[in-house]
Amino acid sequence: MKHSFIALGVGLVLILVWVFNATEARVGEAWAEMTELVDEIQESIDLADATRPVLHGVALDGNAHLDYQRALGLLSPEAEADWIAWSVSSGVGEDSEAAALRDKLVDENQAMLAAVSTGARRGEARYLVDWESGLSYRVPQYTSLRNLSTIVILAAQRDLDEGREARAVERFLDGVQVGRDFIDTPLMFISMSGCGLLDISLSDPLVELSHPGSLSRPSLERLAHGLLAVDESFPMPVDAYPGEIIRLVKGIHWPENFLGGGQPWSDLRLKSWQYGFSLRYMAAKHVGEVTEWNEALRETEGSSWPKRGVAVGLREQAMRESSNPLSQLQTSLLKVEEAVYERLTRLRLVRTAIEFRLTGHAPSLEDPFGERLMISDVPEGLRIASCGPGGDFTSSEQVLVIPR
């Protein structure tokens, strides 16, 4: 009997050793396949065409993002405090105080403005990423980017006030270009920052240039030409920010630093039971799932939102139904892509307004959320509307009204 228990124990140990070795072999094979796939994704990003048209002047050689990086370093130390003071005074209608604060911000940031203008005229805008650390050049805080874009618009407004109309138009276009360039990145959180910057650049100060008597015809022509160039090069989503896959794999040292996964009994570790408690195996399978989902998304590249939204929705459903904990943790892509479509829509609303002021005719531009933007007369003037993500012109918030 004793010998039987010993034999049974030895047999169990041998079985466990076999299972462990087989699991390790599967893990190694899956990880190797994933690494090869990630290398291909990285190469495709690094070799992607990053050229885009300049909106005024002659294109300069070089990468715009290097200039934007330099511009962020040139922001005045008081920029944040001054921005808050300017924002408050503008909100309560203190025009003289707001004007003084505006001039202070512009005067103290001339070097920054020059760097932004240079970057906006570069022929290439490639967001630089150190894939081994998962981060780009020192990732800027959104507040710094917001201050930069706001000061560009404030400088444009001052140029208008002081009679430098052509320079004002160039600055407005610089602001739009910065927002466009930050949207056009392979990392989701940087792209969302770009959406915020484009909101600043396409806000009321630019829209007001479409009002009667705001700009001369030559300036309107330059502005219309620049906005058209942005529209034609607008970075529409193709797949789900492939840089996020690389950032996940290369920017995190498995398994020690991922969501506490290195702890023996972490929640993530326990959830990896179906993968033999191997975080590497779970990560490899997750990347495989995401790659399949992204391949399906490519079929709707450049489509209007009804078709693209359905495809993204199916991806969201697959993500929720996945048994892989990492896939379940994916950031919702639906709202992210919707935000990008909203910025393109805003651009087309502004384009329509400028074209109307230039030609007296409002062009029937494509609605990113539907078929065509709706143009109608209202007591306040001309109403330009998108049906919005809900597909309803009556409830849409994507509306612009300008005086005739």
Could you explain how this protein is built, in words?
With 404 residues, the protein is mainly alpha-helical. It has a domain at 2-47 and 241-337. The chain is built from 16 helices and 7 strands. It has helices at residues 2-46, 64-73, 79-91, 95-108, 110-120, 142-161, 165-183, 188-201, 204-207, 217-232, 243-250, 267-271, 279-298, 305-321, 325-328, 333-359; strands spanning 60-63, 122-124, 129-130, 135-136, 374-378, 381-385, 399-402. It has a 3-stranded antiparallel beta sheet, covered by helices on one side. Strands 1-2 form a two-stranded parallel ribbon. Helix 6 runs antiparallel to helix 7 (165-183) and helix 6 runs parallel beside helix 8. The longest helix has 45 residues, at 2-46. It is globular. It starts with a helix and ends with a strand. Mean pLDDT is 86; it is low at 16-21 and 252-257.
